[in-house]
UniProtKB/TrEMBL annotation, chain B:
Keyword Oxidoreductase (UniProt): yes
A Pfam family recorded for this sequence: POR
GO function term, MF aspect, one: oxidoreductase activity, acting on the aldehyde or oxo group of donors
Name this protein carries in UniProt: Indolepyruvate oxidoreductase subunit beta
Protein's UniProt keywords contain DNA repair: no
Residues covered by the Pyruvate/ketoisovalerate oxidoreductase catalytic domain: 12-188
Species this protein is from: Thermofilum pendens
Amino acid sequence: MASRGIIGEAGVRRLLLGNEAIARGAVEAGISAATAYPGTPSTEIVETLAEVAEEYGFYVEWSTNEKVALEVAIGVSMMGLRALTAMKHVGLNVASDPLMSLGYTGVVGGLVIVSADDPNAHSSQNEQDNRIYGMHAYIPVFEPSSVQEAKDMTRELFDLSEKYSTAVLLRTTTRLSHSRGEVVFGEVPKLNREARFHRDPERWALLPPYNLRKHRETLERIKKLGEDLGSWHFNWFAEGDGDTLVVSAGAAHMYVAEALKTLDVRSPLLKLSSVYPLPRRMVEKALEFDRIVVVEELEPFVEHQLRVAASETGRTPRIVGKELFPRVGELNAQLVASGLAKVLGVRYEAQQGPSAGVELPPRPPTLCPGCGHRAAYYAVKLAAMRARTNPVWANDIGCYTLGFYPPFRMADFTWSMGSALGIGMGISRFSKEPVVAFIGDSTFFHAGVPGLVNAVYNRYPIVIVVMDNEITAMTGHQPHPGSGMGPLGEPRPRVSIEELARACGVEFVEVVPAYDVKRLMDAAERAIRYVRERGLPAVVVARQRCALVELREKRRRGEKITLYKVLREKCVGCGICVDKFACPAILRENKVVKILPELCAGCGVCAAICPAKAIVPAGEGA
Amino acid sequence: MRPRSIVIAGVGGQGLLTMGSLLGEALLRQGYRVSVGEVHGLSQRGGSVVVFVRYAEYQPSPVVAPGEGDVLVGLELIEAARRLHLLSRSGLAVVNDFLLPPPAAQKVPSREELVASIGKAVKSVFVEALPLAEKAGSPVAVNMVMLGALAACSRVDVSLDSLRNVVAARFRGAVGAVNVRALELGYEEALKKLREQVQD
């Protein structure tokens, strides 16, 4: 959903996605490099930067994972240049190893790490609050509270990063990253910096005698920053009536501002955008109130820091927060108004909406029509039945995670990137039934390779099916090392999954087109038998380019797509295509089935698996 | 003025995010402060999707809470029914008269049942968007038909003219012409239905 919409002169007003605004802020800071591994809700930041990189003259890459992305950005900073790296919240877990030491070393060129958190876990495995990482790693944390602020703050954080020679964490949430709001553009500077390696081994080589000294220096730096942030313009006090101070942090401020208007109260307000360290002078002023209400999403991060500050200064205001506002899920203006009304003693009744009063079928996300993963799941399931096994289905993170849902039910667990292999191995060591692990191409490069090497070295009996659609699809089609192209589709070396597997020492490696259900079924059955007999890992690459990419390119080339239709007189109504294969383009109609031409992608797999041969090409469609 | 809230509900792939950003730009041109809240889900296609568009004289937050919506634009009947609770009791539902059962769903209510129960719960207008989109030149333009239908509702201040301008600016050439035509057809159809209701 990104666009070149962030190109423009100072003064231009545009409706931008929060992530696009962050990208514009980075452009206005004069970055030299941006790196990322895609992940919702962070992807559009670097996607947008890739589209304007040539225009503004900086370097952009999709890195193999977040650790590499952060490390590349650190290297750029050591060259005295500005770099941004962006990742989803769980991506920072992968990057946490270099992050923890980055707090000690600090930076030369400005370095902004964007962590896009996902309260409500809209598209994530958890709703971890990455502000805590900042405190853990001594990396200052900043939270914008509007799309405009996201842009402005990103730009200014590069200056701050260099002034205090520290990397900074810009924390956004899904609601800010994926909201559109008005943004007024600023100037794009020409920094004209000389790239020079800042050699300083005592600083960069984290060896025992130096790291304790650095720990001390880091503590000083954080303390100094806390003192200076009292006059930082993104933090502000608003005078008001009453003895209760409302404190809003980051994105929660959007809801607080609206809730105060709804309740028609003018409480004194402290709007915080630097949440670690807290601005000391403002904290002292806040602690003079009798009562403090802290509104923040997820963990009581600011709340706890205020409690500590209160106990350190000997003040005794009543501090409330998470007892009023949920710690699980995201906030909205109504939830905030309800909580504030209680503590401020004003009347407020949350509205109730109407109901249709009908029981509705759920609509879980599904694999697209024409998706190669569907064919692969169908084939591997049949292979397991033919091999008379009931495998443990290890699964990973990507579009193919949707194999969790009926009718496939082929995800007994999904954990974190690459875990299908790691956890799968632990199970396979003691399981009588074989373990079949599904991992996507992008995930394989991200975190699957060390697992694969472990499987060879420690001789694990595990079937690894690489669900290869040649792109990082779920986040919107970003290329990866196996795609053979760079961020804008330009040619790049292609790292071969099968060659890599063979080079690691896997003896059983087969590559099969995913649409070829028959061949894939045979290959998967051979792999299961091989693993059972030899006790060694086997790799099957089920390859089919993402159907959405395929369709888009065919349309661009003006190629016709052959759609499929059902011969009603031949259809026996067995339901295999609907109930077992579950293509969204196929519907039951009376006793037979029909194919919706507007959804059919023309893959033809349904025709191949129809036992009655009732599905045939429908001639040429659009 | 309290913030006005528009909820757009449908199935991934129906063009909801495009509707949200066009609507946001149109409202911006009309002089409002705007927030468009999107959730990019787990799948590229086929999941349940909802987009929030809110506007006011001050910057509104991007989330529509239950009971708060002024207008619900439904691109599919099940999804419209699923998000009905986001409307206020006096809200208006503008719904595409189209049923797309989820793949492999066991119990699916009928089209008639859904139309009747939505109609009973709130004031509503049903538009058959697909024939109008085809008439405009493309079955994909269903989202534009529904945007046009929204502009016909006086509950929210979305003008057909500003929508026409942003659509023409976003899509050039033949696609732009088809989309503008689809907007207009949706607008006329909804206006006709709303007038009939007044006469009833």
